[in-house]
Fold this sequence. Notes:
Blueprint: H1 2-7, H2 9-18, H3 28-34, H4 40-68, H5 70-83, H6 86-90, H7 94-112, H8 114-125, H9 132-153, H10 164-181, H11 196-209, H12 212-228, H13 233-239, H14 247-262, H15 273-293, H16 297-324, H17 332-361, H18 363-390
Helix pairs in contact: 2-9, 2-10, 4-5, 4-7, 4-17, 5-7, 5-8, 5-10, 8-17, 9-14, 9-16, 12-15, 12-17, 12-18, 14-16, 15-16, 15-18, 17-18
Amino acid sequence: MYLEKLRLNIPKYYIQKMFTKRVYLPLVAIYSVGIAGVSLQGLGFIASITAVTSLLLEIPSGYISDKFGHKKSLVFGSIVVAISPLFYVMMPNFLGALLGMAVFFGGYAFHSGTMSAFLHETLTELGREDELAKVMTRAQTYGLLANVVLISLVPLTYSVDPRLPFLIGAFFLFINVLVVLSFTSPKPRDSVQTQEALSFRRLLKSLRSSNKFVLFLLLGLLTAVRNKMPEFREIHYQELGIPVESYGFLLAIGSLAAAAFSFYAYRLERLGPKKFYALDAVIVLLSLIALGTFRTPVAAIAIFALFVAYARSRTPVLHTMLLKESPTQDMKATYISLMEFFGALNGIWVPLALGYLMGVFGTGAAYLYFGLFLLVPVTVLFMLYLRRTET
């Protein structure tokens, strides 16, 4: 009976992915600028504050999850996330836009490493540990297919009432809470609570001895760019003259491409860590440079669609590779959260830099200059990572 309930976590996870997306996402920047009166620099500031929120909560949320239970952390984070779009409705101003974004990512911090750890433990208990990347990327496919429909239709309600897409988004996110509540927790193998202080120190020591901090700096920088670059997408579309009414449809195209890619993305795991991290860096940097080089509506739509197709599958594959090399068995969520911490750390300055460059040079030039600038730190960090793994 217990194993059967545990097996049901997998299809429930597929359903959960269908209702965890922000169906109002194409309208956040437009609503913030047009209704709430936020400037482009203000959007960059909001994105930075959001990164600070993630930074402050990332490691504590992973620690809390490992100590008190992954399901409890997932439920709490889901409730916080579901509340976040209501701030746009109740407070159509700068503070509302700030809270709508910051509260969402604050709640998401309780999901980022925890869900991967929860699934890893579920599959390990079922004797299917090697299927982690496949399960996560397949779930991404089903979630994105549902997102294609929702994100195409929900933004159409913006013309009826700008608040309506955010209310619908909150409704779907509350469905997500109900699905997470139905998960079955895997039985713990040890009493983690009695080992936490020692385990956390041992984890940090293991990271230092294995030179993981250089890798986390590299992955954190790439994660920040991957997360923050699309936050200015609709502003770029607007500058290129693409009608606002089409934004939901265009985002759906990206989701459809991502769904097709995600179905087979688990095969990226076969590349091994070094090749995958190199490919990751190339895709992120080339996407920035291409957006700044080819400044036409068709090119922008195509580049963002391809970038989203890859970026949606990046996290499952990345977490799978990190969990396979995890130096700890009782603090997996904390381990993943440490890597996400570096993403949040870089996420403070990345949107500020992009917002400033866009305010001065325009969106296209900002993407180009920022991509060229990042060539240096990304190359240096990757070379350091290779050098330390070979010694």
